[in-house]
Structures are given as C-alpha cells and as structure tokens.
Design goal:
The protein contains 8 helices and 3 strands, in the order αααααααβββα. It has 187 residues and is mainly alpha-helical. A hairpin with a 4-residue loop joins strand 1 and strand 2.
C-alpha cells in the first residue's frame, strides 16, 4: 500500500478519489508484473473505503465499483511439477547445502519428507505429534478433500527433524505451532 497506492491516491481527499483513479493505481501494479499484489491492493483499498464510509469519513467507495476480473487480466495458474522419485536424492542434497537460514532448510526438509501442502505444515500443532508412538495425526478439519483424520508415521529421519525444531527454539513451551515464522530467538 505504501509503495503503490498511497503515492497515487494519498494526496487526494477521500471523497475526490474516483473509480478511475483507483483503477489506474491498481492496474499500474499489475503492469509492473505484480498480479497478486494488485489483487490484494484492490481488496485492501476496498476494505479501507468501507471502513471510512462506516465512520462517516467518505460518502463513497471507488474500489467497490469494480471487481478484479473487471480490470485485471486473469491470473495464469502455474502448477509446479512433481518431483520424480529418482530426483529426490538430488533435491535432498540441494536442500542440505542450501545457503540460507538453518530453520528454512529444516522446513524444506520437512516438506520434502511429508509431502503436505505448505499451509498444512505451517498450521501444524505440536499437540498433533506423538513422539512416543512416532505419529503425527492431522485433524480432519485441516485436511483438504475427503474428511478424515490423516496420520503420518514418523520415520526416523522425520522424527529427528522435528526434534531439531524443538532444539531450535520452536518448542511447545514457546509456541503451539512449529512454523519457522513463529521462531522465538534464543537469548
């Protein structure tokens, strides 16, 4: 918002911002190649104006005059290729030598071992993991598709990786989830 919308619309009083001005600001974001950012900017601009209307700060909402499909090109969905079994050793080697955050490397290893959707792993709860029984039970409400609890047997390698997470500061004592984003720095 600060980089794209405020410079284009911020100088105008809210009641002077027309649908055309709002549309031009959103389309400019798309034209620089940030299609997803443009969609989110339109949504956020709409939310700001709805809030302002509810508080009596403006009489109209120029962002509600159009939907993303009215002004933005359809997004091209890109499905990533699956990793073939014979390519797994090379993938694991590349992850092992990844030159970034150790916690990110750990998360990538987990992803490669459990084949969960990223969001499902990020939403994971420590309470779902039973180290004694070597199981990770994901509740049905967090799974996509046919409902039913999904259980993963923790292979030795996966169990070690999850224990590494607990040693990295992401523990049931510091957070209920084990997402790298929730990492609590050690002091």
């Amino acid at each position: 918002m600060d980089a794209d919308i405020v410079p284009k619309l911020g100088e105008f009083p809210m009641d002077e911002i027309t649908p055309e001005l709002a549309t031009n600001a959103i389309v400019a974001i798309e034209q620089r190649g940030a299609e997803d950012v443009a969609r989110r900017a339109l949504q956020t601009t709409d939310q700001i104006f709805r809030w302002a209307r509810s508080k009596g700060r403006t009489s109209h909402n120029p962002a509600s005059a159009c939907k993303p499909k009215d002004i933005l090109k359809p997004m091209q969905r890109k499905n990533f290729k699956r990793v073939d079994r014979r390519d797994l050793p090379e993938l694991m080697r590349k992850i092992h030598f990844y030159n970034g955050s150790p916690i990110t490397r750990l998360a990538m290893k987990l992803m490669a071992l459990v084949f969960l959707r990223t969001s499902k792993m990020i939403e994971g709860q420590w309470s779902e993991i039973d180290f004694k029984e070597a199981r990770w039970d994901i509740p049905a409400e967090r799974m996509k598709g046919p409902k039913g609890k999904s259980g993963l047997t923790l292979c030795l390698c996966l169990g070690r990786l999850l224990r590494c997470l607990t040693n990295s500061g992401i523990t049931p004592r510091t957070t209920s989830t084990y997402s790298p984003a929730n990492r609590v720095p050690r002091t």
